[in-house]
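Could you join me in thinking about how sequence relates to backbone shape in a protein? Label the sequence line and the structure token line clearly, so we can match residues to local backbone shapes. Once you have written the record down, we can walk along the chain together.
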Amino acid sequence: MDTKSPARETPASSPLATAPTEQDQATSNMTQPQAKLTFRPSGSATKVGLIGAGNIAEFHLDVLKETPNVEIVAICDLSEARAKEAADRYGVKNAVTSIQELVDLGVEVVHLAVPPDFHVSMTKELLEAGLGVFGEKPIALDSDDARMLAELAEKKNLPLVVNHNNVFHPSFQKMLERIDAGEIGRVQHVQVTLSVPLAQLDANDYTHWMFRTPRNIVFEQAVHPLSQMHRLLGKVESANTTLLGSKELLPGQTFYDRWSTAFKAEKGTAQLYMAFGQPFTRSTMQVLGTDGSLEADMFHDQLAGEEKTVYLDFWNSYKAGMSRSKGLKKDARRVLKNWSMFTLGIGARRDAFFLGMKGSIQAFHTALRAGKPLPNDARAGLEVTQWADALAGDVTAQAPPVPQFPEPGEARENEVVVLGGTGFIGRRVVARLLAQGANVSCVVRRTFSLPEQIVEEGLSGKIRILRASLSDEEGLKAALKGAKTCIHLATGNGDTWEEVERVMVNGSAKVAEICSDSGVERLVYVSSVAALNTGGSTPIDDSWDVDSQLDKRALYSVGKAKTEQALKAVADRTGLGLVVARPGVVVGDGTPLQHSGLGMWARDNHCVGWGLGDCALPLVLADDVADGLVAAALADGKGVDGEAINLCANPGLTGQDMVEELARATGRRLKFHPRSLVLSQTMEIGKWIVKRVGGRKVDFPSYCDLKARALSNPFTSNIAREKLGWTPVEDRAGFIKKAVDIYAPK
């Protein structure tokens, strides 16, 4: 699709001055015209709160813990459990759920780490409450809102800064130093390439905010290079965008995956090429000056340059090549040294992303306490938003309409409630239930970005759509009241045992309790073969036995096994009909090409085997798993109640076979690297020794868990075959067609 958007004019303003260097991130002379800010923290330390206990919050907390004159007073999140978990992990005294509680605790500045569509409303609420804000990018999703927030912050005399951390990327900082030193003369043009993979696209998971509207990807990804281009060139004057590619993720949900934009700005011109969902990562910025050029590789954290010399062309070319080579080698050694020292525990963390976050956060707090102009303040945030607005041009900002489903009403006769019905197995389960004439209810956490069939059948009233999550007890009670059967695919997970136990184990046990109290006759729980000891050679039959060495297994495996045990305890006590289904390595449309069941993907085209890769894996098509779950759910009488059943096919394919077939189908250079378990364990022990010598507290690597990842046991799956009539695809050619050829270029 080739579409051009008209240029969008924006007013001019003064460019930013010199930014702080990597070596001196405690101070900042990076300034722009701004209203004089007389706000000062009241005590010896700035009292800070953090809103949003997601992944990015961890970087804020890591940096804040080592930032002088900062006291983290509280962590705030809508989920009190998430807030408390983060507070306990970082030694923060208070875990709260409201802005008013932050005010009552004396917080002066809030780090805002929530999804972008909440930035404007929450920033406004914080400023109105008298709190300064250090917000994640972007400040807003259009220039009008960004201007409103900037004006409100100035009116309230409160700090408002945007975390444009890429301005503090170490390679970009070095580039600024060399430009400011006059090395390449006057900057004339900036050329940026941003080509990155998106795991969500591979997994067909379109619920992330960046897919909600076609413009969102600009504010999610493009603001990083745009903030750097703004730093170099000042305010944008015009832009012309060509959309090079698009795809429809879901009906009405368009995603533009390749963009090319030419800009005119105050101090030069620029061109930005963006490509998303790409197999090869490239993130570079080339700055052309009157007397030379500089190229920063943001992904590898390297910088190279070329200047004019007095020499003849042949010798000038030689000198230029040698200079580039020398600079790249120096940076490569630096990156390796920093990684090694951090791994050994004898050096601080110095990867590029962390240094960018650290530079941005610490520059703000240092400038705030010193009464100096704030880096990336609201006015700069507004100007970067104008760059993003100019880039997006006339690309619609409207999200696909959120379906207005009818009131679900009471459960119908023999209602089957599906938890997790929008996932890649869940949507297949729902389709098969409908095909068999079942009355189906889907419990969803959100009502946007749902699969097409679920939307259509939900709007028609054929599917009851109810909103709830595993932690929403009242919502689950409403969904399960009057139902006959529940299929539970919404497993949940976590990074700590406490979180896994709370979400996966206790959350699922609560589902079983509600099922029993609500009169549900049968609960089908989808577990995994990861709960079993899969590191041997004897066949694994259907049974309730789980791995006897769970203390040596990974969190996910422990969680699945403990959940099975918790559900069985509820069923034994209450008489609830319970079926636990354990799929093997599930493949098919909706699973990433780089499936972890095949091995450890060191890169997206290099798979290191869990062993030699010569054992036939318990592979199974997602369609066949759905067939087995539906058969278990709808079985007459007692069916397979009280059974733990395996859902594993036997197509006779090894990990090495699968990678070779994927290489054939995709035309890519995919390589499988066999590695003995002994060698892998030796390497893991070596890493453990290095980390322990460096003073890091890490568990000894588990050989038991490593063996289990090899999935070397054969599986029988006799109960599903004999009692449910389950007949999965096991013909090798047919299996490859449905599991591998789907990745062939279209």
Observations:
- Confidence is low (pLDDT under 50) at residues 1-34.
